[in-house]
């Protein structure tokens, strides 16, 4: 096998453990995301999916185990430091300044990435504006550049939030239910746009998703959570046929 065929690990979580009042939300969880890979996390409510994302992005510290990004231990870093290392997160509820325009939100994100001392200087600089417009074009939002984000329909607000994550120049996108709360047509539109943009930039993605049609179409690999552990893992075609997975996640035996 040539070296170029060997997948290169980007995110490596090993043996993670955390409990809340006796409930183990992560109980020996290990997961790798390779360069350029799209990995979906599925599992019933309360199984620990968001807890895993919180550990990987620095919002929770595990009592055991490590998280590495491109070989570097990031387990104890704060969320901001992890973002600087290359993990950008978009939340289930978009985190936009709703009374500011989309391009202002993006220029703020770009300025923040470049450092606080620059964030104190005027935000509207030609370099920031050009970069923001490039990102809006990449995510198909250029006609909404001057709209207040609070006035955007939900699907576009979600894409806008994802655009902010792209503005951090990440290696890995972490997305908590990127398609929740929108119509099924819009779900596929969001995923098509997101996948295209991520492939263009060579990014990997880790996303929690409840819609199995989305998982089947867009995930390279799917990982199934159950009570703080991983119960199954593999290609969507294999995993979504597994009777244990169907019973536990999809609710059909
Ligand atoms: N900050 C916290 N404090 C107390 N308990 C928590 C906390 N975060 C998560 N838990 C508990 O840990 C378990 C896993 O929760 P988590 O939110 O990770 O599950 P989930 O799979 O993301 O669920 P959902 O699909 O409903 O979002 C649940 O029992 C939850 O109540």
Automatic annotation (TrEMBL):
Superkingdom, natural source: Bacteria
Name recorded for this polypeptide: ABC transporter ATP-binding protein
Organism of origin: Pararhodobacter zhoushanensis
Any GO MF annotation of the entry: ATP binding
Pfam families in alphabetical order: ABC_tran
Domain ABC transporter: 11-252
InterPro entries: AAA+_ATPase (IPR003593), ABC_AA/LPS_Transport (IPR051120), ABC_transporter-like_ATP-bd (IPR003439), P-loop_NTPase (IPR027417)
Alphabetized PROSITE patterns for the sequence: ABC_TRANSPORTER_2 (PS50893)
Keyword Nucleotide-binding on entry: yes
Key words of the record: ATP-binding, Nucleotide-binding, Transport
Keyword Lipid metabolism part of the UniProt annotation: no
Gene3D superfamilies, sorted: P-loop containing nucleotide triphosphate hydrolases
């Amino acid at each position: 096998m040539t070296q170029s065929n060997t997948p290169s690990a980007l995110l490596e979580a090993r043996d993670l453990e955390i409990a809340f009042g006796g409930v183990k939300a992560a109980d020996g969880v290990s997961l790798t995301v390779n360069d350029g890979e799209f990995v979906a996390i599925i599992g019933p409510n309360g199984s620990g999916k968001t807890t895993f994302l919180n550990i990987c992005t620095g919002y929770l510290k595990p009592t055991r185990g490590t998280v590495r990004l491109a070989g570097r231990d990031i387990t104890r870093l704060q969320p901001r430091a992890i973002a600087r290392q290359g993990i950008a997160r978009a939340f289930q509820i978009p985190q936009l300044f709703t009374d500011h325009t989309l391009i202002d939100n993006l220029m703020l994100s770009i300025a923040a990435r470049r450092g606080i001392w620059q964030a104190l200087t005027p935000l509207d600089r030609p370099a920031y504006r050009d970069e923001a417009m490039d990102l809006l074009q990449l995510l198909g939002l250029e006609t909404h550049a001057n709209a207040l984000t609070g006035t955007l329909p939900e699907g576009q607000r979600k894409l806008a939030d994802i655009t902010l994550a792209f503005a951090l120049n990440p290696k890995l996108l972490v997305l908590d239910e990127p398609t929740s709360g929108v119509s099924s047509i819009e779900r596929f539109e969001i995923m098509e746009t997101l996948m295209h943009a991520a492939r263009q930039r060579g990014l990997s993605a880790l996303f929690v998703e409840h819609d199995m049609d989305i998982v089947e179409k867009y995930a390279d690999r799917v990982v199934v959570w159950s009570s703080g552990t991983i119960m199954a893992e593999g290609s969507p075609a294999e995993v979504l046929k597994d009777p244990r997975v169907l019973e536990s996640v999809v609710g059909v035996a």
